[in-house]
Amino acid sequence: MAPIRRKPTRAVRVGAVQIGGGAPIAVQSMAATKTQDIEATARQVQLINAAGADIIRIACDSRKDVEALAEVRARTRDLNDGRGATLSVDLQENYRLSEIVAPHVDKIRYNPGHLHHHEKDKSIRDKVAYIADIAVKHDIALRVGVNCGSVDPEKAAKFGHDDVGAMVESALEHAQMLDDLGFTRYVVSLKDSDWRKVVEGNRRFSSQRPDVPLHLGVTEAGMPPDGIIKTRIAFEQLLAEGIGDTIRVSLTLPFEDKGQEITVGRDLIADIEAGRFRSVPLNFGEGLNIISCPSCSRVENEQFIVLAQDLKKMTEYAKDYRVTIAVMGCRVNGPGETDDADIGLWCGPLGVNLKHGEEVVGHFPYDQVLDQAHALLDRVIRDKGLAPA
Questions:
Q1: What DSSP assignment string belongs to 347-369?
Q2: I need a labelling partner for 61 at 20 to 30 A (CA). Which of 94, 262, 299, 384 fits?
Q3: Each residue's pLDDT tens digit, 349-369
């Protein structure tokens, strides 16, 4: 088995792990439990670590989450011969949490599209400088995590329907900001649920900034096997071109099976290194497309996972129709990332918001929304005058 020949990128140290600089491709996953459920989250970290993860990500949206994170860190310090698990944290709107998060992790991921939500009188550069300064003080790395579904609103307005253009410009802008601040210990990710946009965005960014290590992933890839296929297509193209230094396979899975993301990721890398590529039918993705987010700690009700699985079974009759359905598990990404789908379901703690495009059809209990979605799917097929793909 020969290593994949990759583009030379600078080395970024994340705890005991090196990303880029010729190091082996690092494989990541994300804890799916609620961070404040310390027992479950510590177990999740142990499970993912046992599957062979290089880096494990946890979400923090509040001070209580950070307090729980500190305890999770303490409970997992004996992993890996006492080195502990290599932890990354996922910040959402409250960028100032970085100050109290930093002592407990090896890397912070921030989303440029979320920096607008707090302290709107401050410039984005000042907020990035704050995060970078915290990273220097605590000897940790950063990831600039750009996502088509939550791109910087100014970029979205500028580029209109060109999601990839908005995503690439945002990533380039933040990479330059960090460089200008003298901070180079960062990686970049450009993600979308459409593998085509993932491939195009990463190619474009890499062509302009070949020095920056890239974190690859198809966000909300969905349930196996479809989610694995979408991810494989993107990774086969990018990794084979030498693009990508760390990967995350995002699958909708029961909590106890989250280690499968690591197993699948390792298998994909091994196949590409061995030259085992899968052929892709010309019509792949032209029929029913179900987008569902990976179960993570922001999911407000675990019933979301069951709902996604039941929806897949219920929609089997429509598999040949060109309809996109998005099933999202939280209020952070749910509203925005269902807008582009024909049918969207974003799940709250007690019920599900059913959408037709950007229009909210209604809020329904988990045990009733499937029937409503079924009726809406029939309506979409009828109104569009769709024929099977």
A1: E-SSEEEEEETTEEEEEEEHHHH
A2: 262
A3: 889 999 999 999 999 999 999
